[in-house]
Design goal:
The chain is of the alpha/beta class and 297 residues long. It has eleven helices and twelve strands.
């Protein structure tokens, strides 16, 4: 099967449209939210306009009020996190056929995004039975993914800036996820996460709970930490966990909590149960979250 060019993007940082070759499909990349100096108008719209007719399809499952702007454009398959907990299940054979040949895939940098890219290359067929379910379990942090998917997720979290690793994972998935030697490489890569998790558990002892919000100050630490682990540890103490360091404030709640952090913080897009803003907004974030009514048990 043909292997397109792969580019990586996040809601806050997209590649230059003119540098992407040919027709482009965008997978699992949310529209930018209005936070930290970025916005849909500053980041997402210029990218869409830069691609123009070269945009073959955009598939995403993160909430954003600007989805409505593209409701009449069949190239945009935009759903909410509540409708689809992960993106790969939206990549179907029918949509791949409708989009036609693409030269470049621009995908998000986590397991969800890479699995979506691999599934697209495989003409909408799962890399292995249960891959869609694994992506949903990992992206929502509900349920238990397969051991294979957990290894890939941990490797990506251990080496988030390693594009070569991402490329290997996509190729591994495209080829059916049966290469034992490659899986061993991913296991080795994932080992660095152990030290990050140790630091996360140490930082978790700093959590302070007030008005249903567990807050952890991670500005002073002994080394790198895994923010996902630290936020999950906080959610064992309160419905909402907040981690703040020298650059960012991140708030999170369980996927099935019913809590809408976007609405609470006046943001326009992203995941309702995990948001990040600039560190200078800490006081406002805490005031808004502590004013929320208590969620039902």
């Amino acid at each position: 099967m043909p292997f397109p060019h792969i580019a990586y993007g996040t809601p806050r940082k997209l590649p230059k449209a003119q540098r992407l070759e040919g027709r482009v499909v965008v997978l699992d990349v949310a529209f930018a939210s209005r936070a930290g100096g970025v916005s849909f108008e500053k980041v997402t719209r210029p990218f869409i306009e830069g691609l123009g007719s070269r945009l073959a399809m955009w598939i995403d499952h993160h909430d954003h009020e600007r989805h409505a702007d593209f409701a009449d454009d069949p190239r945009f398959v935009l759903r909410t996190k509540a409708e689809h907990g992960a993106c790969p299940e939206l990549v179907t054979p029918e949509r791949v056929r409708w989009a036609g040949a693409v030269d470049t895939i621009c995908c998000h940098v986590d397991f969800d995004g890479l699995c979506s890219a691999a599934k697209w290359i495989r003409d909408g067929i799962e890399p292995y039975p249960g891959a869609d379910d694994d992506a949903r379990a990992i992206d929502t942090r509900l349920g238990t993914p397969s051991e294979r998917a957990a290894v890939l997720d941990r490797a990506l979290r251990a080496r988030p800036r390693d594009d070569a690793l991402k490329g290997l994972i996509i190729r591994y998935l495209v080829e059916g996820a049966g290469d034992v030697a490659l899986l061993e490489q991913f296991k080795d890569a994932s080992k660095r996460l152990l030290s990050l998790e140790r630091e996360s558990r140490r930082l978790a002892t700093r959590y302070a709970v007030d008005e249903g919000v567990a807050v952890c100050d991670a500005r002073v630490r002994d080394g790198a930490y895994d923010k996902t682990t630290l936020l999950l540890l906080g959610q064992q103490l309160a419905p909402i966990s907040v981690v703040h360091d020298e650059t960012t404030v991140t708030a999170a709640a369980r996927f099935d909590s019913g809590i809408d952090l976007l609405a609470a913080l006046g943001l326009e897009g992203g995941m309702p149960t995990r948001v990040s803003v600039a560190a200078k907004e800490l006081a406002d974030v805490l005031a808004r979250l502590r004013a929320l009514p208590a969620p039902p048990p």
